[in-house]
Specification:
12 helices, 17 strands, Immunoglobulin-like, 837 residues, membrane, Substrate Binding Domain Of Dnak, Chain:A, Domain 2, single chain, coiled coil, coated pit, F-BAR domain only protein 2, 9-stranded mixed β-sheet, alpha+beta
Length: 837
Amino acid sequence: MITPYFLENFWGEKNNGFDVLYHNMKHGQISTKELTDLIRERSTIEEAYARSMTKLAKTAGNFSQLGTFAPVWDVFKSSTEKQAGCHMDLARKLQELIKEVQKYIEEQAKAHKKTKEEVAPTLEAVQNIQTISQSLQKSKENYNAKTVEQERLRKEGATQRDVDKAGVKAKKATEAYKSYVEKYANAKSEFEQKMAETAQKFQDIEENHILQLKEIIRSYSEYVEETHVQIGEVHKEFVRNIENTSVESLIQKLSESKGTGKERPGPIEFEECNAAVATEGAKPRKRIPFGIPGRRKDKDTDSTESTEVEANNTANGAPPGYYGSIDIQNANVPQVDAEGFCIRPEVNENDAKDNSFYSSSDSDDEDEPRKFHVQIKPVQPNNGTHHNRANIDELKASIGNIILSPSTSGQMRRNQSRLTGVSALKPKPQGSGDELAKSRGPTSYELTNNDLLSLDPLSPPQPGGASYASAVPVPNRPITPLATGALMPPPRPSSRPKLPTAKLTGINEIGRPFSPPKTSSASPPPTAPLARAESSSSLSSNASLSAANTPTVGTSRGPSPVTLASQDALPIAVAFTESVNAYFKGADPTKCIVKITGDMTLSFPMGIIKVFTSNPSPAVLTFKLKNASRLEQILPNVQLLHSDPSQSDSDSKSFWFNMQALTSYLRKSSEQNPSASYYNVDILKYQVQSDGIHSTPLNLAVYWKCTPSTTDLRVDYRYNPESMDSPGSLTNVQVLVPVDGGVTNVQSLPNSIWSSEQNKCLWKLSDLSSKSENEGAGSIRAKFDLSNGPSNPSTLAVQFISEGSTLSGVDMELQGSGYRLSLSKKRFATGRYMADC
């Protein structure tokens, strides 16, 4: 029987022992998951090592089989294969062990949920005694004050009436004090009884938890030990095989397999020469008639090369058909003599000097060679169609296959559009370093200004990201076709799009009323240790193109965040930012590809750091993520945040903070930026379930009509309120399209901005909502006169933002006491939002 340590060591003046023991129980789930991760990583290492050893065995088997040493390679190959098998067996055993640990994790979660229900009365007793203790202390202070006041009046000779009044007050204070003493005694008795039972229950849970983990570790160590023993046996066998492979056996094996015979050469005797026979056989050898025009008469022109090799060499490595055919029949082929030498034709000396190029000769009277006339076919120009189609396929893959997977290149930079007003629990000057939307460097698709003219919508994304909690990518969801009555424009024209390849830059003469503010000299707020889970094929969270250019400021309620007291409910702010990425293809809604991602950020006032550091056990910050059933993936910041499956359900996910890690992070942030009033923490990322074109706030369809002299363009758009949780206006709507072919004149409705330097046309539309004309539906029409047509249909890019709502509808609900939500900000914006014909 183990000593009841929990029963003896978790009381204390503030009665916080229950809270510490409960969260210690929850930490057990973290330990189990981390042990699972360790075993999984070891299994991965063993599997990778086994594959490397298998590859090494194949290498040994492919080494040279020539020489005396060749049989030894078979010994190496066999031994290495056996070692690889040992490591692969260990990897399989560890995978089976992981399955057992996963079962224990499920059982552990159920046990913790049951325990929480069982200890609920203890929690009530703890809260009761804490409340009564505070009331008792106040009543005691009031009693002492009234008693002293009555005694003072007596000593000072006050009137009897005043003394009587003081006596009445003192009597009431005495009765209240005694009443609280009695209540405290009852609460104390109940608290001690239930706390003793609960403390022992928590210790029993921890004992069983540790025993279970030790059993898992014992199995792990046995598997590793068995593998080491097997590897040792394999190595001993290898040593024996090498010892048995003697020098004599190797030499004998080579002699038997490569021997050329045991018969030695016999004797040869001298024979007299028969002169008559020798003279008759000494006739000149007739050479094969072969010659190259203009070549010097070498004394030995025998050739062993085949005509097939010669034919291959004439192409000089060029592809078939690159050179034209050579007319051998009509060429001036020289005659050859009996020995294959060329018979020199008679030519004019001057012509020979003017028209020839030099070749080596060992005779001064040799003439220059004659030349063949060779016709070379030019290379057919490449119109780039296949390249453009490849780019379109890559674009589809980029948008359609985005997943929130881990990456390894460090924390990803986010664009300036990150919820500027969320951290503003009170108004503050720009550049103070505590804005939630402080710029963290442009992403690959982020604009350096607010104008789409500086965006290249098809430029490749930059790699980025650090480490999120690992998540299994969810398979692509089927895209549902539009229902009857949706936007169904006429069929697209037969012309094929051509994607621009040049990088688009800004235009100086075009005004940018929403350009980002100048950078402050103050250092930016520290970023949370959150991994940005977007791979090189993913879409940047461009809440984008200029979402940060219209900052919003919120005002906090309650006390100033700089002067918070420990007994106050601590204010925090939350921000949800979502990015919608879409690709529309012609007028077919089933070909629309959509991906929606989001970020959740909390903002803490500066004064909260002092409250956390002065309290060894601050109240644990817990919350629920509501409407989580609409999400495909949730990636929490595992350094700070932990999920609580026991409190989660089908439509919400419960999370709680590691308060020690949060305090440490906020303290470090304060040291890096002591002048900030607020500190922002990225706590999780998520991916929203999408339903094709139904999930896009703005439906698009593009049509091109291209002739040598003109290009007609039409863009149909429709505001889609059904895609939003709470429909709001789309603001800062801009449409950009490149047009080539030498545009000389533009006619557009509505009016547009044309850049002749960049060959791009930009439309800035009014805000779109259900209250707009035609309920937010409309068309853009333009006619371009060309000097060098026809144009090639290109990809159209769109940007917009929406404040006050999200596409997913996710929300935050605080759990427990000690904190209040002072501000909640929501917005979404475009990432890569494009359309092709």
